[in-house]
Amino acid sequence: MNLDFLSEFIREQYQTNDFIPLHAPSFKGNEKKYLEETIESTFVSSVGAFVDQFEKKIEDFTGTAKAVATVNGTAALHAALYMAGVRNNDLVITQALTFVATCNALIHMGAEPIFCDVSSESLGLCPKAVEEYLSENAGIDSAGCFHKQTGRRIKAVIPMHTFGHPVELDELLNVCSKWGLALVEDAAESLGSFYKGRHTGTFGDFSALSFNGNKIITTGGGGMLLCRKERDGEKAKHITTTAKVPHPYEFFHDEPGFNYRLPNLNAALGCAQMESLCDFLLMKRALAEEYKNFFAGSEYEFVTEPGYAKSNYWLNAVICPDTEHRDQLLKVSNHAGVMTRPIWQLMHRLPMFSNAFRGDLINSEFLESRVVSLPSSPPNKDSSGKSYG
Ligand SMILES: *Cc1c(COP(=O)(O)O)cnc(C)c1O
Questions:
Q1: What is the CA radius of gyration of the chain?
Q2: Residue 343: domain span
Q3: Are 207 and 226 in contact (CB under 8 A)?
Q4: In the chain, what percentage of residues exceed pLDDT 70?
Q5: How many CB atoms lie within 10 A of CB 278?
Q6: Domain boundary residue among 274, 289, 315?
Q7: Are 218 and 300 in the same domain?
Q8: Residue at which a domain ends, from 274, 290, 309
């Protein structure tokens, strides 16, 4: 395939000669209006109506029992792990192929990762790889699951829905219940993605969403901790808002809480963005279809949603035949002002995780050396075909 055609094809989608970013935010609705309302009310900070509204909108959209807004997705993950009972010296199983935030959150909890392979269908944590690792390396006693070599507790499993493609959740839940492990979903990339008709982030007891600037909707910076049980939601709200016991004027805090509350200003943006989410999802699905057709019959394999899922297609991606082809694609497109990026380097290659326990990472290594992500902002063409940029 002539790679110049790819850059031209992408320019056609966005109808522009300007630089094309990987994922740009889009503010076409009530963003300005809600921000102005917030400023006029002076409730820009930790108190205000938009936080509650934003949480309600996420609850309605995802079907989760309780959503708790946080300052960013990493903070949501950190609080999710705390809520799931992960503590100092615990081990937590996650995928080697992920964004570093997944692992940072568990390190901040005093825990350490165990890296397992991803599935080639979902690009996310593979249930078979987790089961294989556990059956070779773990045991169960009266206190739960432990790591045989060190005697340390294995507490949780954190799958990440890579680029918005849902992992095999039923199978992962089976592995978790067999070994007595908590499931915490890193759903930072998967707002709008469904597994067998149910929204990602509603399977684990706790999950995290992100509204960073490059995600499907943005609050500038922000995140959401999803709780499957109402009661957990109340506790999660409490610990992410300094653990203050409600009282007309006394300051009494009953445990070391986090100050992870999302400012009202950011929540205002989030409320406006939620009004556009369904449009974004449709536009992104249409763009993915265009990419799929473009790559059909070529030596590049476009990444499509797993058969059991409906993905948000947050980031479109292609698997190159080999590393040389990948490097050439990156070089040609970036040179043409069309932003493309390799997938993340595997976590155990980063200095702080180089000694982490890990299983076979065959699929992760294959994908690490071949996957390129492609411009994926909603194209936002109007009926005349003109782009809003
Ligand atoms: C974006 C992202 C996060 C959270 O990012 P924040 O910038 O802290 O909101 C976590 N995990 C993954 C996989 C992500 O892509």
A1: 21
A2: 3-25+277-374
A3: yes
A4: 97
A5: 11
A6: 274
A7: no
A8: 274
- Is the beta carbon of 188 within 6 A of some atom in ligand 1? yes
The residue whose CB lies within 8 Å of the most ligand 1 atoms, and thus the one to mutate among 95, 184, 189, is 189
* C-beta of residue 16 within 8 angstroms of C-beta of residue 375: no
158-180 average pLDDT score: 98
| pLDDT, the chain, mean | 96
Helix residue ranges per DSSP H, the chain: 3-14, 31-41, 49-62, 73-83, 101-108, 127-137, 169-179, 230-240, 264-295, 323-335, 362-368
CA of 385 to the centre of ligand 1 (A): 33
Give the C-alpha separation, 161 to 172, whole Å.
13
pLDDT at 382 over 90: no
Residue closest to 192 by CA, chosen among 216, 208, 175, 162: 216
The two three-digit tokens of residue 315, written as one number: 């980031």
Residue 346 DSSP label:
P
3-state secondary structure 33-74: HHHHHHHHHCCCCCCCHHHHHHHHHHHHHHCCCEEEEECCHH
Instruction: Say yes or no: 265 and 124 in one domain.
Output: yes
Nearest-CA residue for ligand 1 atom 13 is 99
Q: Output 386 or 364, whichever has higher pLDDT.
A: 364
pLDDT tens figures, 98-108: 999 999 999 99
Residue-level length of the chain: 389
Rounded to whole angstroms, the Cα distance separating 171 from 179 reads 13
Atom of ligand 1 at shortest range from CA of 215? 1
Q: Which atom of ligand 1 is nearest to the CA of 222?
A: 9
For every residue of 189-255, DSSP letters joined together read: T-TT-EETTEETTSSSSEEEEE--TTSSS--SS-EEEEESSHHHHHHHHHHHBTTBPP-SS---BSS
Report d(CA 328, CA 201) in Å as an integer: 36
pLDDT average, residue stretch 134-144: 97
Claim to verify: residue 282 and residue 191 sit in the same structural domain: no
Rounded mean pLDDT, 294-306:
97
| 63 plus 164 within the same structural domain | yes
Exposure string of 202-232, with b = 16+ CB inside 10 Å and e = fewer, is bbbbbbbbbbbebbbbbbebbbbbbbbeeeb
Quote the Cα angle for 214-216-222, to 5°. Answer: 65
